[in-house]
Design goal:
The strands form two sheets. The protein has a five-stranded mixed β-sheet with strand order 3-4-5-7-6. A two-stranded antiparallel sheet has the order 1-2. The two termini are about 25 Å apart. Helix 9 packs antiparallel against helix 10. The relative contact order is 0.08. By secondary structure, it is α+β, with helices and mostly antiparallel strands. The chain is elongated, with a radius of gyration of 34 Å.
């Protein structure tokens, strides 16, 4: 890693006094532990043979965290969130280069890297034992390495001096081995440039579509205000004016009373239209009470029964709550208008720093994000949050919308 190499090359005389030798030895020791566990699992057949292909997935996750022993910079996962269902998961993982790179790393760590680490650490342990030779010999415990026997005080001092020199040089060598091994692990387990570029390109396209959607939404709101609520208010003003003229003419009965009733009705309609527009922009309950309460309000207003299972431990980031809310809102609208559903289930869980939200209806199915701007807009909203949006909607139903949103 960069930090280890800099410490070894910039100030090599101070390297042994820094934290790096200990961290490098710790990294190699933990590599041996993981490597031995993998070797035993492979030799004893602990892992079901067809599942060996996927053994690199959990190992890769562990190794990306273990790299932080030498480099605090986190290594992102190269795996995007797969489509829902076992079939979608298998197709996604088998089609990714990252899965096969992780499998290659598992085989390397349990063989070549394990052997190199054992040899290096074994030499270090032997040298540390020899450094204790003066104490052992003084206690009447000679040291024997093959035909070589150390049983006098002079031999013990000479051996300890040589062992100390080997340890000092060996710590440099072991640190270089650890840094090289960590760089190799990062090269295999981190996302490749092509994978990152694909994510960046998709994110750029999503943001472009989202900007266009926001502009279209702004124009729609302006149009609705102009053609809907504004016209109702204009009509209300005219009706009130006519009512005043009629009241002046008939003393408050007949036509004038009817016009006042019409004016009240039109005022209620105008206020309802304005409330709908405001609620569609950003509901106040979402700001005040959070996502579960806002989804509950949507369920009360929905024309079909909605079952909610959203046990969140507390408030989420505002952008996450807003995105999740509009996903539920659009999903309920689609279920009622297009899928002719009779029941909808909304569920969500916060796992670690990720919110997983699913909306399932028992409608006709056949929903396709590529065929409609509504679902495409939800996918773009989700992509801007660096989340994933998937739709499973076979013909005949049911339809399941799933959104995974990072909350860090």
């Amino acid at each position: 890693m960069t930090g280890v190499w800099q410490a070894m090359t910039v100030r090599p005389h101070r390297f042994l006094l820094s934290r790096w030798p200990l961290r490098c030895v710790l990294y190699l020791v933990s590599s041996v532990v993981v490597g031995v566990a993998l070797l035993v699992a492979l030799l004893l057949g602990v892992v079901f043979p067809p599942a060996v292909v996927f053994l690199g997935l959990p190992v890769g996750a562990v190794e990306r965290r273990r790299l932080r022993i030498l480099d605090p910079a986190p290594v992102p996962s190269p795996h995007p969130v797969p489509p829902p269902g076992l079939g979608g998961w298998l197709r996604a993982r088998l089609g990714e280069g990252a899965t096969w790179r992780e499998l290659g790393y598992v085989l390397t760590l349990s063989s070549v890297l394990l052997l190199v680490d054992l040899i290096g650490l074994g030499i270090l342990v032997d040298c540390l034992i020899v450094m204790a030779a003066p104490v052992l010999v003084a206690a009447g415990v000679p040291l024997q390495f093959g035909d070589l026997v150390i049983d006098t005080h002079g031999e013990a001092l000479a051996a300890a001096a040589v062992a100390l020199l080997v340890v000092l040089v060996g710590l440099y060598a072991l640190s270089a081995v650890a840094a090289t091994q960590a760089a190799f692990a990062r090269w295999l387990l981190a996302p490749r440039d092509a994978e990152l570029n694909r994510r960046v390109e998709e994110l750029a396209r999503s943001r472009g579509r989202l900007l266009n959607a926001f502009e279209a939404e702004r124009r729609r709101i302006e149009r609705d205000l102009h053609d809907g609520a504004q016209q109702r208010l204009v009509l209300l003003a005219m009706t009130l004016g006519l009512a005043r003229l009629e009241l002046d003419g008939d003393g408050g009965t007949g036509r004038g009373k009817q016009l006042l009733d019409d004016a009240q009705r039109q005022a209620r309609q105008a206020l309802a239209a304005i409330r709908e527009l405001i609620h569609g922009i950003h509901p106040q309950v979402l700001t005040d009470l959070g996502l579960p309460a806002a989804v509950g309000e949507l369920a009360e207003r929905c024309q079909v029964p909605v079952e909610i299972d959203l046990p969140l431990p507390g408030r989420l980031p505002a952008t996450v709550e807003t995105t999740a809310y509009f996903v539920v809102c659009e999903a309920l609208t689609n279920a009622v208008r297009h899928a002719r559903a009779s029941r909808v289930t909304v569920s969500g869980r916060l796992t670690g720093r990720q919110l997983t939200l699913t909306v399932t209806d028992d409608g006709d199915g056949g929903a396709d994000p590529a065929a409609g701007t509504g679902l495409r807009g939800l996918a773009d909203r989700t992509a801007v949050m660096d989340g994933t949006f998937t739709v499973t909607s076979p013909a005949g139903g049911p339809t399941t919308l799933r959104v995974d949103l990072p909350c860090g």
